[in-house]
Here is the input.
Amino acid sequence: MCGIFGYVGARSASPILLEGLRTLEYRGYDSAGIYVPGQAPVRAVGPIDNLAAKLTAPLPGSAGIAHTRWATHGAPTELNAHPHLDMSGTVAIVHNGIIENYRELKEGLIMQGITCTSDTDTEVLAKLIGSVYRGDLLAAVREALSFVRGTYGLVAMSERRPGEIVTARMGSPIVIGIAADGNLISSDPSALLAHTKDVIYLEDGECAVVTKDSYEVMTISGKKLNKSPETVEWDVESVQKQGYEHFMLKEIFEAPSVIENTIRGRLMPEKGRAKLGGVERVLDTLVDLDRLTIVGCGSAYYAGQVGRYMFEEYAGLPTEVELGSEYRYKRNLPDKNSAVIAVTQSGETADTLASVREAKSLGLLTLGVVNVVGSTIARETDAGVYNHAGPEVAVASTKAFISQLTVFVLLTLLIGREKGLSAEEGKRIAAELAALPGVLEQYLKNTDNIATVAKKYAAYRDAMFIGRKFHTPIAYEGSLKLKEVTYTHAEAYAGGELKHGSIAMLDEQFPVIALVPKDDVYEKMVSNIEEVRARKAPVLAIATEGDMHIKAVADDVLFIPKMHPILQPIVTTIPLQLLAYYIGVEKGLNVDRPRNLAKSVTVE
Ligand code: M6R
Here is the structure.
């Protein structure tokens, strides 16, 4: 949450900073601001466009820092927007994270006659750094941070040394980009791609001084570190819309290539097996587990729920799924022989990260299913699988979810074949998975019917999603997509749960989206549809191509290709993502950046 960008080099800084902020805007868009030493900070409420409108000409200077905010402490006003200054007005900082003891620190500052004008914890940190600044910004930052409790990705500059940027990290990501004409700092490597693929990831407890042609990394306690740049594998095109109207649409349409990239070199159709280099070393342990726990938040949690059905049904591996925000705080009583898999697109989600740390403290093996290479969770887990889905820019997760389900199929094959999944079944799954990109490519050629149906369902204030087994979590994911992209009140239930209470809500104004592919619970789902129709609720069915019976029981039907049951949820997800997208567009909403959200939830 919140995006940070910094540049020190040979070129004019403010256009570069503005462009960097645009790439980071998905991390928060309550307000934005920019600072170039020697100039007053420029800040604006709302999206980056509002800040750009204020910057009628580039600010003079070839170094600066910038920020796009997702508000935590203090309303999204211009006064609360970053950058914040110290008392002298010569030290500026931008910050991502939460300073937990900011009230205490503020009182200490007030006793020294230092006051804050905003409601933010960040301004307290700026004032604190200024209060201990004696000509060496790095020393001041390190000293100030020794008083701080909380999380930060921090970037600071002083007017007195305008060619130097100081940065520090504790809990919120900081990446340094090494480019030919200068160096950069960002919360996310994707924002650096326009300049460089050579990056240095700061770890928690590290800080750095960055100039035009040098960088020096050390621990906040002062121990020098020798860090060499790593190469980011993504291309700059992957963070561009490439002709699509929205990133969300582009990312939904990337599903075929995402699956291809996720399975590349990992699937052995002729053997009905999968190989995953990142878990090879711990495969014996995984095969012998008594229990596996999957942890994630939001869509990643729902992907984990689907993963549980896959592992239990096809790999015979007892599995439970926990929300990151619960697992980290509850008393966990793991079997001696258990492990934790953290599922996360960003690799930075605070609650998922804290769960990994909790699992480690319990002595458990930890694995990650992570999209962003080099992210904190990727680095802190013992083993894992990268999604290779490419950068996901739209706030609503679409292609990453598809890739997470795909990784669970690969893991099911890998573990299952060692635990009794037959070669015949393994080959069937592997062959269909290999064919899936082509099937989806074909399916996505005509989505006009989804857009048409979306126009009708956009008129409703409520929606209920139902499914069974593999499609229960997909119902939850469909409902989450609709909520976050269209602000429609949406609920999700396992089909069998309706009559235990929630069916009471249904009437002719409360449509039901029923996931009813031809599988072993098809008949049960059809009964559920009959029950909701008896309450006059309109029914939109997502059903298997060729299912003529469903037309008689549902008001509208979106047909999907039939796949092996383990792969079916991947296919069923696509029309739900598109439905949310088209309803959001129909309502005239900003589908890429829904209100109140940020993509990477790095605060707790
Ligand atoms: O980066 P992560 O996968 O850990 O993020 C988890 C959730 O914050 C994320 O899936 C969120 O629910 C999305 N807005 C869903 O579209």
